[in-house]
């Protein structure tokens, strides 16, 4: 096994033993290994072998895999931003994520886009600039540090307020995400919120 895979074996073994409220001596006796050997395994001073681990894991009622560090995938999100009709949409979550998170930059516009309705739900947070949110009969301006959440079945539209772009973190459920980021180019042009 690679060295890094074994690095956490000792601490995980100790944690499993302590979770079952067993002393070193109790576990060593039940697993038929010496206290010294068990102590050295837990401290990383003894190399783990299958012959040693099998009786210990049986007593602890765990799998050997439970003691090994799981491979951690690269957590960085590397997806390409897209720009449509002046809006820049930067994905901040993996493509297969159950929650879709984006940084959206809304450009200044002369007129608020047409109010739209679609299935979904959205939560947003203003990073910088001012965001104009028209939601039903409400016409709101959100400042940096303000958040909003709403049902996208309520007629809504968003744009920057003033002469500067507004950058927003938006979190959509899957229906809202599809409507905002995966519709045909012509439809996206008219649905900016």
Based on helices, strands and strand pairing, what is the structural class?
Answer: alpha+beta
Distance between the termini: 51 Å
CATH topology (fold) name of the largest domain: Jelly Rolls
- The secondary-structure element order is HHHHHEEEEEEEEEHH
CATH architectural type of the largest domain: Sandwich
Question: How would you state the average pLDDT, rounded?
Answer: 84
Overall number of structural domains: 2
**Count of separate DSSP helical elements:** 7
How helix-rich are the residues, as a percent range?
A: 25-40%
Our Rg estimate from Cα atoms comes to 27 Å
Strand content: 25-35%
| Main pleated sheet | 6 strands, antiparallel
| CATH level-four homologous superfamily name of the largest domain | Jelly Rolls
What does this molecule look like?
The chain is of the alpha+beta class and 193 residues long. It folds into two domains: 3-67, lambda repressor-like DNA-binding domains (434 Repressor (Amino-terminal Domain), Orthogonal Bundle); 82-190, Jelly Rolls. The protein has seven helices and nine strands. The chain has helices at residues 3-6, 9-19, 24-31, 35-43, 50-60, 174-181, 185-190, and strands at 82-84, 87-91, 100-106, 121-128, 131-135, 138-142, 147-151, 156-160, 166-172. The strands form two sheets. A six-stranded antiparallel beta sheet has the order 1-2-3-9-4-7. Helix 2 packs across helix 4 (35-43), helix 3 crosses helix 4 and helix 3 (24-31) crosses helix 5 (50-60). Residues 13-67 form the HTH cro/C1-type domain.
């Amino acid at each position: 096994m690679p060295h890094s895979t074994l690095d956490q074996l000792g601490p995980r073994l100790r944690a499993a033993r302590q979770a079952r409220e067993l002393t070193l001596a109790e576990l060593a006796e039940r697993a038929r290994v010496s206290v010294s050997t068990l102590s050295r395994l837990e401290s990383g001073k003894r190399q783990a072998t299958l012959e040693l681990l099998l009786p210990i894991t049986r007593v602890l009622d765990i799998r050997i895999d439970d003691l090994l560090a799981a491979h951690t995938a690269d957590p960085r999100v590397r997806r390409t931003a897209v720009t449509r009709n002046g809006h820049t949409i930067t994905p901040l979550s993996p493509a297969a994520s159950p929650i879709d998170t984006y940084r959206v930059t809304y450009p200044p516009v002369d007129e608020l886009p047409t109010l739209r309705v679609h299935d979904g739900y959205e939560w947003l947070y203003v990073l910088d600039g001012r965001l104009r949110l028209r939601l039903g009969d409400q016409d709101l301006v959100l400042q940096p540090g303000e958040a909003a959440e709403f049902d996208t079945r309520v007629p809504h539209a968003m744009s920057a307020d003033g002469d500067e772009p507004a950058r927003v973190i938006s979190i959509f459920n899957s229906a809202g995400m599809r409507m905002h980021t995966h519709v045909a180019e012509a439809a996206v042009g008219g649905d900016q919120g």
